[in-house]
Design goal:
The chain is mainly α. The chain has one domain: Orthogonal Bundle (TorD-like), CATH 1.10.3480. It is 59% helix and 2% strand. The chain has 13 helices and two strands. The chain has a two-stranded antiparallel sheet with strand order 1-2. Strand 1 and strand 2 form a beta hairpin. Helix 2 runs antiparallel to helix 12. The longest helix is centred in the first third of the chain and has 17 residues. The protein is globular.
């Protein structure tokens, strides 16, 4: 989608953007199905421990029962692969994909704020959003972890619930690009999620391309855009370590 022409008055441009980003009004059945898709996406992006591995037949059946949609098609492609792999392969692929590569990290505020002080404030704001909705955020994960954000979206609905996903659309696009480049089956999960969101603007696409080339903001002058590893060495291509934790003083209570 192209950006709104600058000749349109500012107030009208604002209203047009809001209309484009706001999901269409859904029927109760569509709302229920959308929430189920979001929960399945959250589940798919969690670490494939023994409990999740054992639940694969149930997850596969739930995906196959979804009404036809682009998101359902992408989820079916992922869960078919997911159901066929042995547990050790799933665990190893997950760690290599999400824990060892910054370009496909699942911590969304990293892409917007990098390892800066602003990231800590963004985490606190997100945690307060959850708390204001009456949602318990003491599960142990940081509030910007994508499975957590997806579960909140499923519970709170298309408006406030999906707002964090829309806010971090550019980070989601970058994760999807990285997964496609790596040939990971998890690319289908991100494709399913992006199918639920409004299409990117030209500015979004340009920002993602720049982010892919330069990396997110970093307050450590002179370091590689994606950070260093070990004792100051630059990380070789595609061997990114996970984003640094947010500053302890800015973390929401109960997160680690």
């Amino acid at each position: 989608m192209n950006a709104v022409p600058p000749t349109v008055p500012a107030r009208v441009r604002t209203r047009l953007r809001a209309a484009v980003r706001r999901p269409a009004r859904l029927t109760p059945e569509e709302t229920r199905d959308r929430a189920l898709v979001l929960r399945l996406l959250s589940l798919a992006l969690q670490y494939p421990d023994a409990e999740l591995a054992a639940a694969r037949p149930t997850v596969l059946a739930a995906v196959r029962a979804l009404p036809p949609s682009p998101a359902a098609t992408e989820l079916a492609a992922f869960t078919t692969w997911f159901a066929e792999q042995d547990p050790q392969t799933l665990e190893r692929h997950y760690v290599e994909t999400f824990d060892l590569r910054r370009r496909s990290s699942l911590y969304l505020t990293y892409y917007l704020h990098g390892d800066t002080r602003r990231r800590g404030m963004a985490l606190l704001t997100l945690a307060r959003r959850y708390q204001a909705a009456g949602w318990d955020t003491s599960g142990g994960e940081l509030p910007d972890h994508l499975p957590v954000v997806l579960e909140f979206a499923a519970l709170a609905g298309t408006g406030a619930g999906e707002a964090p996903l829309r806010q971090h659309r550019r980070g989601l696009d970058l994760i999807h690009r990285a997964l496609e480049s790596a040939g990971s089956p998890y690319r289908h999960v991100l494709a399913a999620l992006l199918a639920l969101l409004p299409p990117p603007s030209r500015a979004d696409e340009e920002a993602v391309t720049k982010l892919a080339a330069e990396g997110p903001p970093n307050e450590d002058v002179g370091l590689d855009p994606y950070g260093t590893y070990g004792h100051g060495e630059f990380a070789p291509p595609d061997t990114f370590v996970p984003p640094l934790p947010a500053p302890p003083a800015s973390r929401p209570e109960g997160a680690r």
